Amino acid sequence: MDTNTHSISEENTFTIDCKDVILREFIDTDLDTFHLLTWQPEVYEYSPGWNVSKDQRKDWLINYEIPENKGFFNAVSKGEDIGDIRLRLGIILKETGEFIGWCCSGIKDELPPPNREIMYAISKDHRGKGYTTQALQGMINYLFESTNVEVLSAIALLNNVPSNRVIQKCGFSFQSIIEIDNEKYNYYKLDKKDWTGF
């Protein structure tokens, strides 16, 4: 069932090995590529609030995202409850080592509990190749196998057909249409007991 593995590299960087991509914790050298990706119209159309100034992105990356990842891995290594700690991983194309997107997990207050959400985005240049599905499956596997997470949520704007397809492919079941900030989303859930892997 588990066709991906996670490890800590010599550089002390956490990774999850998927088929064509690797999920890797954010590192400071991701800043430039990460910032450029957030400004692709195809990305910010479906990920509102991610396209901030480079200074803001740097502040978030260095002072919040990277340290919070370390806190997440520390809690997991001690077998502790991850609570509301966020996990943010870059999607890295194995073939080139390029940072092509991200897959994250955290509490989404707008959803009914349990409300640990998985969200993701991928560069316009790498869509339709199955990379996002691989990344999502890798994240789901890791969360269900290595943490105390029992239920995951995902949302996608009604008109975001590719994202809805990825969520469904990964075994999430449709719950309802919900409204967040005047936008309508399909809301999905996945229970650990229903996860069959890939």
Structure explained in plain terms:
The chain has helices at residues 31-38, 41-44, 54-77, 131-146, 161-169, and strands spanning 5-8, 14-17, 21-25, 87-93, 99-107, 116-122, 151-157, 173-180, 183-191. The longest helix has 24 residues, at 54-77. It has one domain (5-194): Gcn5-related N-acetyltransferase (GNAT) (Aminopeptidase, 3-Layer(aba) Sandwich). 33% of the residues are buried. The protein starts with a strand and ends in a 7-residue tail after the last strand. It has 198 residues and is of the alpha+beta class. The model has no long low-confidence stretch (mean pLDDT 90). Helix 1 crosses helix 3.
Please, how many helices? Answer: 5
Architecture per CATH nomenclature, i.e. the level-2 architecture: 3-Layer(aba) Sandwich
Poorly predicted ranges (pLDDT <50, ≥5 residues)? none
CATH fold-level name = Aminopeptidase
Order of helices and strands: EEEHHHEEEHEHEE
The rounded Rg comes to 16 Å
Q: Based on CA inertia axes, which overall geometry fits? A: globular
Intertermini distance:
6 Å
Query: So what's the CATH class?
Result: Alpha Beta
Percent strand equals 25-35%
Helix content: 25-40%
Task: Assign the structural class, choosing from mainly alpha, mainly beta, alpha/beta, alpha+beta, or little secondary structure.
Answer: alpha+beta
Give the strand tally. 9
Strands in their spatial order, largest beta sheet: 1-2-3-4-5-6
Number of domains: 1
What is the CATH superfamily?
Gcn5-related N-acetyltransferase (GNAT)
The chain-level mean pLDDT equals 90
* Largest sheet, strands/sense/barrel: 6 strands, antiparallel
